[in-house]
Amino acid sequence: MNQAIIDTGTSLVYVPTGLWVKFVQTLMRGISYQVYSDAIVASCDRSLYKSVFLLIDKEFYEITPSNYVLTVDIDMPGKCLLGFTKFSTNKWLVGDVFLRNYYSIWHEETD
Fold first, then answer.
1. What stretch of H or E contains 85?
2. Fewer beta carbons under 10 A from the terminal one: N or C of the chain?
3. Distance between CA 75 and CA 60 in Å, rounded?
4. Rounded to a whole number, what is the largest CA-CA distance in the chain?
5. Residue from 69, 5, 71, 82 nearest 36 by CA
6. 8-state DSSP, 7
7. What pairing do the DSSP bridges indicate for beta strands 52-56 and 92-94?
8. Are the beta carbons of 16 and 91 closer than 8 angstroms?
9. Among candidates 10, 16, 8, 1, which has minimal Cα distance to 92?
10. Using CA atoms, how far apart are residues 70 and 49, in angstroms rounded to an integer?
11. 10-53 pLDDT, tens per residue?
12. What is the reported pLDDT for 83?
């Protein structure tokens, strides 16, 4: 099981290096795509994609295609950036692609 860092200053979800290839193969099964510098570029048709679920503290949290298929200016008509990229460590770095649908409450105990 991998640890995760929740970061409100990060836009994408960074997938641990050791999971990256399998993650992309599973997410993109049957869908044409290209990877440029660890960024996935594919069709903007959100109906092609499935939701991704993250297991955090025994609860599943959903990231829907409407949240991770990102329309950006990449000079490739009909193509979008998917909100996942490879992280250079064995941890997840979870940013706005995930956080935009959830509230995060931080409780820091004080002495």
1. strand 79-87
2. C
3. 35
4. 56
5. 82
6. -
7. unpaired
8. yes
9. 16
10. 12
11. 999 999 999 999 999 999 999 999 999 999 999 999 999 999 99
12. 97
- Alpha carbon 54 to its chain centroid, in Å, reads 10
Question: From the CA atom positions of the chain, what is the Rg in Å?
Answer: 15
Q: How far apart are CA 7 and CA 21, in angstroms?
A: 23
Phi first, then psi, for residue 66 (nearest 5°) are -65, -20
3-state secondary structure of 22: helix
Mean pLDDT of the chain: 90
Burial (CB count <10 Å: 0-12, 13-18, 19+), residue 8: exposed
Whether the CA torsion 13, 61, 4, 30 is positive or negative: it is: negative
At residue 11, φ and ψ (nearest 5 deg) are: -80, -40
- What amino acid is encoded at 111 in this protein? D
Token representation of residue 84: 């996942």
